TrEMBL record, chain A:
InterPro entries: AAA+_ATPase, ABC_transporter-like_ATP-bd, ABC_Transporter_VariousFunc, DrrA1/2-like_C, P-loop_NTPase
Cross-referenced Pfam families: ABC_tran (PF00005), DrrA1-3_C (PF13732)
Signal peptide boundaries: none
Source species: Acetivibrio thermocellus AD2
Keyword field contains Nucleotide-binding: yes
Boundaries of every ABC transporter domain copy: 4-232
Protein name: ABC-2 type transport system ATP-binding protein
PROSITE patterns according to UniProt: ABC_TRANSPORTER_2
TrEMBL record, chain B:
Keyword Transmembrane found: yes
Keywords, sorted A to Z: Cell membrane, Membrane, Transmembrane, Transmembrane helix
Membrane topology qualifier: Multi-pass membrane protein
Gene Ontology CC terms: plasma membrane
Domain of life where this protein originates: Bacteria
Claim: Transmembrane is one of the keywords in the record: yes
InterPro entries per record: CLS_N
Domain (Cardiolipin synthase N-terminal) ranges: 22-65
TM annotation in the entry: 12-32, 44-63
Protein name: Cardiolipin synthase N-terminal domain-containing protein
Chief place of localization: membrane
Subcellular compartments: Cell membrane
From TrEMBL, chain C:
Transmembrane segments: 21-39, 77-96, 117-139, 151-173, 180-199, 227-249
Species of origin: Acetivibrio thermocellus (strain ATCC 27405 / DSM 1237 / JCM 9322 / NBRC 103400 / NCIMB 10682 / NRRL B-4536 / VPI 7372)
Name assigned to this protein: ABC transporter permease
Coiled-coil ranges (or none): none
S-adenosyl-L-methionine keyword on record: no
UniProt KW keywords: Membrane, Transmembrane, Transmembrane helix
Length: 305, 68, 254
């Protein structure tokens, strides 16, 4: 059973339809990358999951418990990290986690041990400073600590890395990876390299629906381009290959740029063997022969276009 | 006021003066140490805090003090 | 319930750390001391202003004058300062988004509203008691033979009016997103009460009587029983305001 199940979710602000029948399933113990352009509705979706926004229609279930707007009981399964987490500036990290722990109903000893453990994890252990003096990255890390405090089954992070510098980003991603074994993580982002770094599943939100969904390798397999890159010694050899009679077929498209030729094949009927056959027949040895891997970026551009 | 009267009112004046100064000085220190305000500038808030009795410091802490 | 107490603790911590509690207490302490002092010194002050031969003879000040100052300062200045200090009670949290973390931790919205009201009421209660204690002590010292009637009841009425005002403030705060909006609505509530007071029949039921009839009570020119219906109405309105605040806040999109 999925930790998070979203069924036919609709939400519009005024005349602007943001979500148009979103369906999404997040299985347990995955790091789920929730990708989409700015304004695609990622934050809206998350706020609905948390019961902070009221959907027009559709249902959300967290750990088998239905999310209700306003006072959502399902929230006790969830840890949430907002895109820009805000704290009470006059508290220090320990005081803040204590407040969170008391609200979550943890015992005094639990709060103490969990807080210390988590502040250690996010690298704020000996920070006695007030939160008002914290940098963006420190606030983000404290945000993760508070989100993990009640050992949630589902950790939702809204663009946790967008506002950070490269070092801060790496720190956050490492912390999320470290938390992977204990919880399921859904995190939204538009930084694709972050997704490739830590996610095992991704979903692309576009035009109010999921345009892509599945494990990374699955998606790449599904969208394999059947394309090859061949690099030759010189332009002569390249153009000789390009003009081979056998390649002049409707299902094959070629493009040459200097001494490099890209070959795309439309259907799966023909594959690399065919090209290798042509090469050996013409007695041309390329410098390089490579299968084109779809990048997440090219996939994203393809579905979003 | 002659000295006899002053003596009579001393039990009032001492706590009163202490309270007023405590209020004004706390606000003044905060104005000077946190030079970011929701609106207005430092000079304005110093004047308000020092010269509008009671209300000045209250206004500052309610509206003037910015995010730290 | 756990959330309520945890959040209540946070509220007190916040008022301490943001100096708001300190300001409230200081101002009410200053009022407490100045009330009898101004009453005592009034003839001298007026006397020193008059120089060109016009003689104004003021009657010898009494304990009534001290209490007149108390009810004037506490109602006008004190309530004013209190409303200003508490005007950001919800808006500061909503505009910054500090509540989001806690609400997603399972803090109920009802607990947020109730603990905020509890905290404001406690601060008001402590402040008015301090002010009252100081005025009482110093008045006894300056005007040893002063006799007043219904003093405690009169202060109770003022205290109750504070509760009503805070409930109105909380209600206004749930309606708007900015602290100025909250102030404006609260101000409007007070103005409506004041305008209604012009109609003599309404006076008996108008919450604002709790803050205007105090001197009459002390001097025994106003019957204690004449305020019973006002007290009932004020309690009822306060409860309604708090109840509506909870209902509205529970449905608010954050």
């Amino acid at each position: 059973m999925g930790v998070l199940e979203i069924r036919q979710l609709y939400k519009s602000f005024g005349h602007h339809e943001v979500l148009k029948g979103l369906d999404m399933d997040v299985p347990e113990h995955s790091i789920f990358g929730f990708v989409g352009q700015n304004g695609a509705g990622k934050t809206t979706t998350m706020k609905i999951i948390l019961g902070l926004l009221k959907p027009d229609s559709g249902s959300v279930t967290v750990c088998g418990e239905k999310v209700t707007y306003g006072e959502s009981k399902a929230n006790r399964h969830i840890g949430f990290l907002p895109d820009v987490p805000e704290f009470y500036g006059y508290m220090n990290p320990m005081e803040y986690l204590k407040l969170c722990g008391e609200i979550a109903g943890l015992s005094k000893t639990q709060i103490k041990s969990r807080s210390e453990e988590l502040l250690e994890l996010v690298g704020l252990k000996d920070q006695k400073k007030r939160i008002s003096g914290f940098s963006r990255g420190m606030k983000q890390r404290l945000g993760i600590a508070q989100a993990l405090l009640n050992e949630p089954k589902l950790l939702i992070c809204d663009e946790p890395t967008s506002a950070l510098d490269p070092i801060g980003r790496k720190e956050i991603l490492d912390i999320l990876l470290a938390a992977k074994g204990k919880t399921t993580i859904v995190f939204s982002t538009h930084i694709l390299s972050d997704v490739e770094r830590i996610c095992d599943r991704i979903a692309v939100l576009h035009d109010g629906k999921l345009a892509l969904c599945g494990t990374l390798s699955e998606i790449k397999e599904r969208h394999r381009l059947h394309g090859f890159i061949l690099e030759f010694e010189n332009e002569e050899a390249a153009s000789c290959f390009e003009n081979t009679e056998e390649l002049k077929q409707p299902s094959i498209s070629l493009s040459r740029d200097g001494s490099t030729v890209k070959v795309f094949m439309k259907d799966g009927g023909m594959d690399g063997h065919f090209l290798l056959g042509v090469l050996s027949q013409k007695r041309i040895v390329p410098l390089k022969f490579a299968v084109m891997e779809p990048t997440l970026e090219s996939l994203f551009m393809e579905v979003v276009r | 006021m002659d000295s006899a009267m002053l003596k009579e009112y001393l039990p009032f004046l001492i706590p009163l003066v202490i309270a007023q100064y405590a209020l004004a000085i706390t606000a003044l220190v905060h104005v000077l140490r946190h030079p970011r305000y929701r609106f207005g500038n430092k000079v304005m808030w110093v004047l308000i805090v020092l010269f509008i009795q009671f209300i000045g410091p209250a206004l500052y802490f309610a509206f003037g003090r910015g995010e730290e | 319930m756990k959330g309520y107490f945890a959040f209540l603790k946070k509220e007190f911590f916040e008022y301490t750390k943001t100096y708001k509690l300190f300001i409230m207490l200081m101002i009410f302490i200053i009022f407490g001391i100045t009330n009898p002092l101004i009453a005592k010194l009034m003839p001298e002050i007026v006397g020193s202003l008059v120089t060109d031969g016009v003689v104004i003879t003021l009657p010898e000040p009494t304990a009534y004058d001290a209490w007149a100052q108390f009810f004037k300062n506490a109602t006008q200045m004190g309530l004013f300062v209190m409303v200003i200090l508490f005007s950001g009670v919800l808006s500061s949290e909503l505009s910054k988004g500090t509540l989001i973390n806690l609400l997603t931790k399972g803090l109920s919205r009802t607990a947020v509203i109730l603990s905020k009201y509890t905290c404001m009421v406690s601060v008001w209660t402590i402040s008015i008691s301090l002010c009252f204690g100081l005025t009482y002590g110093y008045t006894a010292y300056l005007f040893p033979q002063g006799e007043t009637s219904n003093l405690l009841f009169s202060v109770f009425c003022l205290w109750l009016f504070g509760l009503f005002l805070l409930a109105a403030l909380l209600f206004s705060a749930t309606l708007t997103r900015s602290s100025y909006g909250g102030l404006l609505i609260t101000g409007a509530v007070v103005v409506v009460c004041m305008v209604m007071n012009i109609i003599p029949d309404v006076h008996r039921y108008n919450p604002i009587s709790l803050a205007t009839d105090n001197m009459g009570l002390i001097m025994n020119s106003t019957e204690v029983s004449s305020l019973y219906s006002t007290i009932m109405i004020s309690c009822l309105l306060s409860l309604i305001f708090v109840f509506l605040s909870v209902v509205i806040f529970r449905k608010k999109q954050l």
